[in-house]
Amino acid sequence: MWGKMVQIAPSLLAADFAHLAKEVQKVSKAGADYIHWDVMDGHFVPNLTFGVPVIQTLRSYTDVSFDVHLMVERPDKLIDDCALAGADQITVHLEVGQTENLISHIQSLHKKVGLSIKPKTKVADLIPFLPMIDWVLLMSVEPGFGGQSFIPKTLEKIVALKDLIGRKKIKIAVDGGINPITAEACRLAGADVLIAGSSIFHQKNYAQAIQALKGGR
C-alpha cells in the first residue's frame, strides 16, 4: 500500500550552497512542487541560514512556488521583504506569538499563509487559526539543522490535524527526517506536502528521489 500522492518541497538547507542557482534549477526540472526556504536567525533556532537577498536573487531561476519558512523571533520584520523577494507563501511559527497579526500581515500582501508548530506543541493549539490559513507545517524534528531523525509521534499529529481540518482547504505539510520510508508513513497518515532535504539533494538523481517520496514505484 503506497498511500496517496503528495507534493514535494525540496529544502535548500541540504543543497550545495556554492551552486544554489544550479540546485534550484535542477530540482525544478526534477519535479519539485515547491522550493522550501528555511530562514533562521540564530535565536528562535540555533542556526543561521539564508537571508532575503539570496531568495530574491534566485527567484528568476525558476517558476516553481517559493515557500519561505520564517524560523525567527521577529517574523514581522521580514514578511514585507520576503514578499518583495518573490515568496509565494510565507510560513510563521505559532510559538512566536502575535499569530493573528502575522497572518493578517501576510494576507495583506496577497501571499498564502503557513503556520508551523514545533514537535512539542499541541495540534489543538492551532484550532483558533485554522480558518485563516492555507497550510500547517508540522515539524517532525526539532528545527534548526538538517539530517535529523523523524519523530514518530508526528504521525499521530497528522491524523489529529486531519480530523480538525475536516473539509477546510488546508494542506498538511511535514518537515524533518523525510525519506522514502517516513514519507510513506506520512502519506498514509494524511499529509499533503513533504519537505525533504538530504533525501533529495544527497542523491545523484533528483527526479528519482522526488518520485520515491511521492510514492511512485
Q: Which secondary structure elements does this structure contain, and how are they paired or packed?
A:
Layout: E1 7-10, H1 20-29, E2 34-40, H2 52-58, E3 65-71, H3 79-85, E4 89-93, H4 99-108, E5 112-117, E6 135-139, H5 154-165, E7 171-175, H6 180-189, E8 193-196, H7 198-201, H8 206-214
Parallel strand pairs: 1-8, 2-3, 3-4, 4-5, 5-6, 6-7, 7-8
Helix pairs in contact: 2-3, 6-8
Q: Note the total helix count.
A: 8
Mean pLDDT: 93
In terms of quaternary structure, the protein is single chain
- Cα radius of gyration in angstroms: 16 Å
Order of helices and strands: EHEHEHEHEEHEHEHH
Question: In words, what does this structure look like?
Answer:
With 217 residues, the chain is of the alpha/beta class. It has one domain (7-214): TIM Barrel. The protein has helices at 20-29, 52-58, 79-85, 99-108, 154-165, 180-189, 198-201, 206-214, and strands spanning 7-10, 34-40, 65-71, 89-93, 112-117, 135-139, 171-175, 193-196. The chain has an eight-stranded parallel β-sheet with strand order 1-8-7-6-5-4-3-2. Helix 6 links the parallel strand 7 and strand 8. Helix 2 (52-58) runs parallel beside helix 3 and helix 6 (180-189) runs parallel beside helix 8 (206-214).
